[in-house]
Please model this.
Amino acid sequence: MHIRSLFYFLGEAFKNIARNGWMSVASVGVVSITLLILGSFVVLSFNVDLATHDLKEQVQIVLYINERAGEDTRAELHAKLVAHPGLAEVRYVSRADAMARLKEKLGDRSNLLEGYEEPEDNPLRDSYELRTAIPEEIPAVAKEIKSYPGAAEVDYGSGVVEPLFQFTGLVRWIGLAFMAGLAVTTVFLIAHTIRLTVYLRRKEIMIMKYVGATDWFIRWPFLFEGLILGMIGAVIPVFIIFYGYQEAALWMQNNIYFVSLLPPEKIIEVIARILIPLGVALGIIGSTISVRRFLKV
Amino acid sequence: MIEIHHLYKQFENDAYVLEDINLMIDRGEFVFIVGSSGAGKSTLLRLLLREILPTRGMIKVFGRDLARLRKREVPYLRRNIGMVFQDFRLLEDRNVFENVAFSLRVIGVSTREINKRVPLALELVGLKGKALRNPGELSGGEQQRVCVARAVVNRPAVVLADEPTGNLDPDTSMEIMKLFQDINIRGTTVVVATHAKELVDHFQKRVVVLGKNRVVSDRERGVYLHAH
Model:
């Protein structure tokens, strides 16, 4: 593209935006609103992910070792657990460690444990605390290691863990479906809005065709127009989300302090990285679809 | 310059709009194409602009067979053809100068060149002092002059006009026709489709009569004949 043409196209794009003032405002509005909804949902799902991630991280498997298991069996059990590909963390907790932990947990009331503290009186069992690489695999892994030699009992909070995982899975799928639906709606709305601005200028396009302008010469200003409108339409929700989120995060911190949120600085980066290219792409796609029909002269 | 051999045109499966048209137009000629509404005058002009393709037969402009012209070559064909419409087709949101300049801008002519050529074209059509007016402030005749200036500003070899006086009163029509004559005298081939009998009879140019979708008469220094 010749540099003079580039300036001409950009100039025309800005002129067109100014000339179709209200139509341009409407296009930007449509892009902004849809991207604002989309962006808010992205923020929400990121935070839901973060929250459930914390929750999921806390879920672990506890494997109690059979008291009658000999040294060989214990060694074999340890080797098998360490070698298991699904386990990310294998930690041995001896009876004495368990007792010390319990004592610490009880704090002031640790005198309840009097009489159980000597090794021969300790009622607790040696155990392994295990974490899986993927939290959702806990039930399956628990079932598998239960049959290992020397394993007496396996506990992972069954009955609580399954519904939690079902819930987070559902949230993720609904989120994906919702975002896909919104993206399609956005393309549709932008294509229609820009088609209207192209329609208003069909006479101009027709004259261009008659005096021998090439199709690309006709297309470029519209592509730039779509790009500019899409970009403005994306920058607005980025700022709204950033400031809105900052306020919301502050409010949450003061009122619902136990919920941890992603920091606003991180959010703006993620949101800008998603929304701005998306807005630009949607603007270009929308104008391409819209111009095509009017080039057939 | 324009060669048409055994040309047929039919839209979809309707009746033929043009049947067995044969026509040769040389460089520098002034030709009236006359005939009642629906005789196929506009269709013929649209074929010359390669807006539509013939159903059968051959149509050559500047030695190029239009049916074989590639889609991306069409703009370059049109840069050598100036088109004038009955309804002017001016852009209401910009002034006279910008309307004429528009046809140069969109084919990539530099601003410096535009500033040189547009005033010349406006002078040619007698609108020198109205460059900054908007089309809405001009009379019908003046608007058509702007349209003519736009058609000739790129110095095309051919100017095609489709009922250029259809929306104008007789006196104004005569002036516009004189303008076409001036342009023709400067060497540009002019083809005017019209059904304005008085004008055609007055100018004593070559007249091609279309009737019932065929050429029924083609005479030098002709007059308007009714094809019945």
Summary: Residues 58 and 131 of chain A are 9 Å apart (CA to CA).
